[in-house]
Amino acid sequence: TSPHTAPPPRPRRLPVVFLSRNHLVTMSFSILDDDEDFGNASGGRSRLGGIFANSEPGGANESLTYTRPEAPKEKKKQKQQAQPQDAAASNAQTVQHACAVFCYKYVDGSSVEQGKLGCAILGNFASKQYKILLYDAEKRTVAQSTITPQFTLTPQANNYSTFYDEQRQGWSLRFDTEDQLRQFCKHLALAKFNSSLATEAQLISQDLTAVTSSSAVQKGDQIEVRYTGWHHTAGGTFGQVFDSNTTKDKAFRFKVGKGKVVKGWDQGVVGLSKGGERVLCIPSALAYGAQGVQGIPPNSNLLFEIKVVKIKGSKDKEATKEEPAAVAAAAPAASEPVAAAPAAPVDEAALKKQQLLERMQKMGHSMLPSSETPDASDVPQ
Questions:
Q1: Average pLDDT of the residues of the chain
Q2: Residue 51: pLDDT over 50
Q3: Helix (H, G, I), strand (E, B), or coil: what is residue 187?
Q4: Phi then psi for 333, rounded to 5 degrees?
């Protein structure tokens, strides 16, 4: 071109803003002067037309293609999986108490040693679900049973206790020490009480020691007890001690069933023997109810550990003036109910005959023939 010829007009670039649903897109393109032909643009194609689409299929300008933002598929999957996992976690049972015990299984009427196993109380207060679990060194389940208010574990002498699993299989557990057995039973009582809260709170009693006396507390008896009381926390555990007389000189005395104590005590101590220990888990309705008392808020569930140190007024007392041998022979097994032996019927004729014989003997006369020597075959070997 001639140096005197004016150069062709340079296109001016202006910004143009496009609004999409979720994006603000700013593009710039060239604007020709009025005397420049749209059709003569570089490449023989309109620049505006090239912004929106090319003539060939699939040649659209990707910078202006709206794509709705979506969460990555992996995140969606993780979110979906998290929901059932969260639900499962909320119902997961954790160890409330555990220890090692020697176990015996009852098979065909005899006990078969199973060795030392772990014995745990598992539970979840939110779901109110609890269970007792026996497991081996590899943490494999050997036996288990759901803990309900009706679940029974019976302490026995020499640190033994017995229960039935879900298959109605009988088990005997031997704890290393008496305190270990007491602590296990104490946490078991709490688990039984917490499970009752799923429907309606119930009075729960759990013996901590074996029955060692035929004398049991009855309604109307006057008894003396040592005790400790705890608050039942919102999380279902033993809370702060609010009262105790274990360090006081005198035990607490009251008459059972006369309304001198809370209803939970009147009902819960019945059946305890002298020296017996028991945990009572008392719902507020059987404690201080909606009014509460000083130091105990309204509608509070209470937990007590009680030991009977003296019973007065029961029919069967250790103070009975019977011969020690006779008392020992008449004492029933711990697992059987105490029942009074029926009195033998009196034979009036035999009584008069005996009195007559005694008078004759005093006079030096014998009215009875000499007894025959029994045959050897009649004597039990």
A1: 75
A2: no
A3: helix
A4: -65, 155
Distances (CA, A) of 308 to 43, 66, 125, 159, 283: 108, 82, 31, 19, 22
Token pair 């019945």: residue: 270
Which residue type occupies 195? S
Instruction: Classify the C-alpha dihedral 20-26-31-37 as positive or negative.
Output: negative
Residue 38's nearest CA partner among 28, 29, 48, 52 is 48
Strands (E), the chain: 12-19, 24-31, 94-107, 110-124, 129-135, 141-146, 154-156, 160-164, 170-174, 204-207, 222-232, 238-244, 252-255, 277-282, 302-312
Specify the pLDDT at position 291: 93
pLDDT tens digit sequence for 96-114: 999 999 999 999 889 999 9
Q: Quick one: DSSP state of residue 344?
A: P
Q: Are 195 and 129 in contact (CB under 8 A)?
A: yes
List pLDDT tens digits, range 249-268: 999 999 999 999 999 999 99
- 213 and 275 in contact (C-beta within 8 Å)? yes
Q: Residue 296 is inside which H or E element, if any? A: none
- pTM listed for this prediction: 0.62
Rounded to the nearest 5°, which phi and psi values hold at 325?
-65, -40
Residues 213, 60: Cα–Cα separation, whole Å: 97
241: exposed, middle or buried (C-beta count within 10 Å: 0-12, 13-18, 19+)?
exposed
Exposure class string for 248-278: b at 16+ Cβ within 10 A, else e? eeebbebbbbeeebbbbbbbbbeebbbbbbb
Q: Which helix (H) or strand (E) holds 342?
A: none
